[in-house]
């Protein structure tokens, strides 16, 4: 290869872009969507709350450290899944829900302003249609989250549930109107639904119709989903990992999400890298054949 006037230009070019060529794509961003289980975890007022009973938490006589606890709780409390069987006699129990129903692309419908005005608000078909007008049709096989911005009240029972007593007639929190559940099962094909309140039906419900309508179609529900405020409207994958209870009507569930790597900084880096490889190769070829 001859040394030409282009050589310094080429060296400068390589020096300038080299760091970018080796730059790895940014790590995916994970978002925790579960509450921890402890004394403060909110359960349905009539349910058995979480108990974590210490058996050992100290150094033993033999010199090693040993800690162990017993746990007990109702299936339906804290961040948990409702299996379809919860309200539908022959539908899936917790162990029967296929894994591909628990993992996948998800969307969030923001109902926070309506819930802020009325804590007994129920999501209507018109709310779902309004979301679609802005964001496109709710895709098939999607996981649908309804965001009431209720998590900011957790773990205060009085503001989260509407009562800190055992009287369920005092429950006041937003939910999904039966009309919206009917609209969803008739017109769309969602595979899992989630709310950031204690129940998919609103607190004042006595027939739990959304439970009945959705679970009859084997669509499980996630309740007390945490930190939904950190999620975008779309562009994320949700993972729900319920405790594997044989014959269960639900169970404690770890839920988390990963943001899709569609953000512009990542795209820009990838684009720059391809452009660089092209340019470096071109200049290199040019110099060789000079
Ligand atoms: C839970 O409550 C029990 C009994 O009141 C108490 O001994 C324990 O320290 C509490 N645990 C936590 C994690 O707060
Ligand atoms: C742990 O063990 C030490 C020494 O064996 C003892 O003094 C202490 O009280 C123990 N702590 C608890 C919480 O049992
Ligand atoms: C709720 O009921 C349980 C038992 O049914 C009782 O132990 C508890 O004290 C009650 N709590 C309130 C706040 O009424
Ligand atoms: C629910 O749907 C029924 C039947 O279409 C309708 O009569 C009723 O007004 C709807 N309720 C609400 C709150 O929109
Ligand atoms: Zn439940």
From TrEMBL:
Keywords: Membrane, Signal, Transmembrane, Transmembrane helix. SUPFAM superfamilies: Putative cyclase. The keyword Cell division does not apply. InterPro entries: KFase/CYL, KFase_sf. It comes from Porites lobata. PANTHER family: CYCLASE-LIKE PROTEIN 2. This is Kynurenine formamidase. The chain crosses the membrane at residues 270-289.
């Amino acid at each position: 290869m001859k040394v030409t006037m282009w050589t310094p230009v080429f060296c400068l070019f390589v020096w300038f872009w080299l760091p970018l060529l080796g730059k790895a794509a940014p790590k995916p961003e994970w978002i925790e969507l579960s509450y921890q289980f402890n004394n403060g975890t909110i359960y349905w007022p009539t349910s058995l709350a979480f108990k974590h009973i210490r058996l050992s938490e100290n150094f033993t006589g033999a010199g090693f450290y040993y800690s162990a606890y017993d746990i007990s709780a109702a299936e339906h409390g804290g961040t948990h899944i409702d299996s379809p069987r919860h309200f539908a006699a022959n539908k899936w129990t917790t162990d029967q829900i296929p894994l591909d129903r628990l993992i996948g692309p998800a969307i969030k419908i923001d109902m926070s302003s309506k819930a802020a005005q009325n804590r007994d608000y129920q999501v209507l078909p018109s709310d779902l249609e309004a979301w679609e007008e802005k964001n496109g049709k709710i895709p098939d096989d999607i996981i649908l989250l309804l965001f009431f911005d209720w998590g900011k009240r957790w773990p205060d029972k009085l503001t989260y549930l509407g009562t800190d007593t055992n009287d369920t007639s005092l429950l006041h929190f937003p939910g999904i109107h039966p009309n919206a559940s009917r609209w969803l099962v008739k017109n769309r094909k969602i595979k899992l639904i989630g709310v950031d309140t204690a129940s998919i039906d609103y607190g004042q419900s006595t027939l739990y119709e959304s439970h009945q309508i959705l679970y009859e179609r084997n669509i499980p529900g996630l309740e007390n989903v945490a930190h939904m405020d950190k999620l975008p409207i779309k562009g994320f994958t949700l993972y729900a990992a319920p405790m594997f209870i044989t014959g269960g009507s639900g169970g404690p569930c770890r839920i988390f999400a990963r943001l899709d790597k569609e953000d512009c900084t990542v795209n820009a880096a990838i684009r720059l890298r391809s452009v660089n490889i092209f340019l470096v190769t071109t200049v290199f070829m040019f110099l060789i054949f000079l």
